[in-house]
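Example 3.2
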Amino acid sequence: MKKVFASICLVALAFLLIYLFLPVLRYGFGGFALILLLLLIIGMILSLGIKSDSKSKKIVLQSKPNKLFGIGILLLLIYLIVIPIITSATIFHTSSYQKLIGEVKNGVKIGNHFEPISIDKLRVVDQKLAYLLGEKIIGSQPALGSQIDLGEFSIQKVNNELYWVAPLLHSGFFKWLNNSEGTPGYVMVSATNERDVRLVQTINNQPIKIKYQPNAYFQSDIHRHVYFNGYATIGLTDFTFEIDESGKPFWVITTYDKKVGFSGDDATGILVVDAQTGEIKQYSISVAPTWVDRIQPTDLIETQLNDWGEYINGYWNFSNVNKLQITEGMSLVYGKDNKSYWYTGLTSVGNDESSVGFVLVDTRTKETTFYKQSGATEYAAQSSAEGKVQEKGFRASLPIPYNINNIPTYVMTLKDDGGLVKMYAMVAISDYTIVGVGNSMRETLTAFKSVYNSAGNKINPSSSDAKKVLKSVITRIQSDVKNGNSFYYFTVKDYPNIFVGSSQVSNELPVTIVGDSVKISFDIDTEEVIDVTSFKNVNLKK
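Structure, written as tokens:
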């Protein structure tokens, strides 16, 4: 009877551990084997019939250990220790780890991935600021704020506009118990306009209820819901909250497999789970819905890129010849045709300040492109931007790379101690001494181009391909002082745009008047105010 009871207890314990920890039931994953090992050890101890002798006060074994338990424990230890070493150890499988990222193509022109972008489309709201703005709008509704927590923000394109999106989550067990049908919606914060903050609680006049989520319990927990609905044998990671073009909320979960024995995690597809109904749909990478921005998780890509750079000359490269490593931080950026990429710089091992280039990894297909361009790391660019306003004590956000007139450029915000944006900064990726700061993005762009143009385009000669030369007559001209620098705005005959330049570009600008004939060159872009790259007053040459 005791043996039957003990067996029932072990089965119940096994189910409880599986229910709590959700181990992947598949070769290459060790979670389930660890649970079996624990159960076998407990079972073996129970089978020994341990009893205390009251006379000698010693522990007495009433029976010998069951050999089957010993054999089972030995086999599990081999599975958990010996097999992973043989099938997964880096020293034996260096090439497999190095090639896991796939083919790394060499980039030629950044314009192949990023078109020049209008300044009103530049990202000025980062994840931390989005969270502050989200908390503010929730705090304006006391009844709501006391019931929920704000989830993690993820960035995505919605109807071709860039937004940070975060779900409303249960703030505890009893709040879930009283509201188990789901939390009332999500928050959207525009990444390009910090005044555009929305609390979305209805779709087509129907209330939103986020029933399946990580802060729910029992079968409403998103991971447990998926696990016990047919996906216990698949690796699941990166539970990301996204909305489709109509605003309907979903959880996008990356499925992954082991490519090198017990290691080498690699994405195989996604599960798309309706956050309200719990409906689950599985997709391979090639047929995933177009509104899904991220399939490749950052931690998998970071590991694969580091392995690619670490083992570029094999395992025994202790002198670090040609070894590369990614810089700190990885950003999600958007390029042509709304494609999204993971961006990170690459540095030589042991070199922290300068990069040898940067990589772009397609967040859906994992197609990887390496741009070999020496320059500043994200950290060095942040320090350079902060140095421009060191008297103010502002801190720079994580830089986001953009194509500014074919110039690879870091764009970042400068924030005060309260996390609020006070200024903006642009830093040339190839030369972090090329810096522009301003109180607005327009002002920042003007300052940045002024410094860049005064350098004679030596940092990026190829950008001259996108320039136009114009000979005309000045119709209006006026100076303006910004952050201690003088800028000259002018118009010319038979051209609709306003031009701007500084005395750093040409010392002829301050003495130019209406009616003077001029020869100017400028970058071809879509801005209303165009920065000149060179300026000559023909009248002064006479």
